[in-house]
Every structure is written in structure tokens, then in C-alpha cells.
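Quick log. Single chain, no ligands specified.
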Amino acid sequence: MDELPGLPPPPPPGATALPAGTFDGVGVLVTGGGTGLGKAIASEFARLGASIAIVSRKQDHLHAGAAAMKALGAPVLTAACDIRDAESVVAALDAATGAFGLPQVLVNNAAANFPVPAEDMSPNAWRTVVDITLNGTFLCAREFARRHLAAGTPGSIINVAASYAWTGGPGFAHSAAAKAGVKNLTETLAVEWGPYGIQVNGLVPGLFPHEDMTDDIQANLDRAHDKDACQPAMRVGQRQELGWAATFLASPYARFISGHTLVVDGANWQRRSLTNPEVVPVREQMGKGPFSLG
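-> predicted structure:
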């Protein structure tokens, strides 16, 4: 097959899709914003003038996020926070509010995930992923909204979701179920809180390789050769593209968009073959042997 051009590459990192200063004076809180795609999203808000609050359970992630925001010249606050704990979420919002005023944008990016066949998954693994990904998203959104409802001020929430919320995710039953809950939660809260000026949207990243990917996810990618050719776009995403989508959804130019989940993956999740490929069990895809109760 002749080489196909695919979708054109994006402008380089540092370019902005919105007018300079779009988020001047705006506080943006990003959970899990110290690494990977969370840091990429925070960076694009920072480039547009936002003050950034990064929350994470891990100090090294907080340090990395702070360094990245400072390199962009953005005011930044970091706060240790376990989003599974309501009191910890309250403390993080208190810290952000004390530094920059009540954040006007919340990006619920923090999540937990790892590949495992459902039959091998421990009850604790299930609970942990659902607790962080779904319950944590709700607790952060709830605390953010309560403060805006009390103040009578508008706000914008972006919940990072996943395309297997629609399709199911073999090998990721815990995360797929939780992300389906996040998508439904997004749609529900958009209706409940819209009358008070709070928009709620979802954002789904496709394949955006980055240095902070966990070893198990990187190993799965390494086993799938020719990743670009497996994408309808004939390329993977570049991190700033996800950041541009996030900043648009929270910008004044997207005020009438709410309850929507935007997929940024070059149409990869909608890819279908004219004939079905051979079924390969999840255990085999992960290089695992036959299941044994022992």
C-alpha cells in the first residue's frame, strides 16, 4: 500500500488556539496535573494566562507540575490531595482559593488504571480504580460546584473520560466501568448545574504518547508495532492538541457547550474493519498463561 498522508500535524507546542490572555485572572485546578496529559492540559491554560493549582497524592508529581508551570511564567500552587477523601478535597480547594480566589475551572484528570483480565482482578483493585476514577471525580466536582452555587458565580468543569465508556474495555473492566460512570455523571451534572451557570463537559484523549506513561501501558504499546498505521489519522496525538481542546471547552467561546464529551483521537475509536479480525483472548494479548484458581 502506498504511504498515506493522514491528518496534517498540528502547530508546534507553544502555539495557542485562543486569543492571548483568554484566561487572565482565572484560576484553574487540575487534578493529577503534575505529569502526563494532566500537565499538558495545565500547560495550555498557563500559556493563556491562567493561575494553576495542581493537586496530586505524590510530592514528586507536585514538584514536576510546579516546575513546568513556573517555566511558562504562570502562577502555580500545589496541594497534596487524595481525591477519594472528601476532607482532602475540601482542603485542596481551600488552598487554591486562598492563593488565587475560587477556581473558575476544574479539570478532573486524576484516575487510576492498569491492564488486567477481569478474572485476575482482586476486589481491592476494582474498588481502588472505581474509587479514584469515579468517586474522586464526583467529590471534586461536588465541592467545586457547592462553592460556586453558594457564591452565585459561574464555573466550568472538564471531566477526563475514555472512549471505552461507550464500547467497553476488555482488559480494563474496572476503568471502563468507572469511565462510563464519569461520562454519565458529566451529562447528569450538566443538566443539574446549568441553571446556575456551571457547564460540565467530558474530554476523551486518544493515543498521546508521553514520558510519564506507566510501564505496563508502555509495554502494551511496545507490543503493538506500527502504531501510526493503526490510527485512521496515520499518526498519534501531540499533547498540545489535547490541551487546546480543554482550553476551548472552558473558554468564553464554548459557553453553550455543556453535557458533551469531546473525543480527541483522530477517529480511532470509531474504526471498524469490513471483516472482523480473529478474536484473541485478553489473557493471550497480555502474554498470560491459562487461568488457574491456584
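DSSP finds nine helices and seven strands in the chain.
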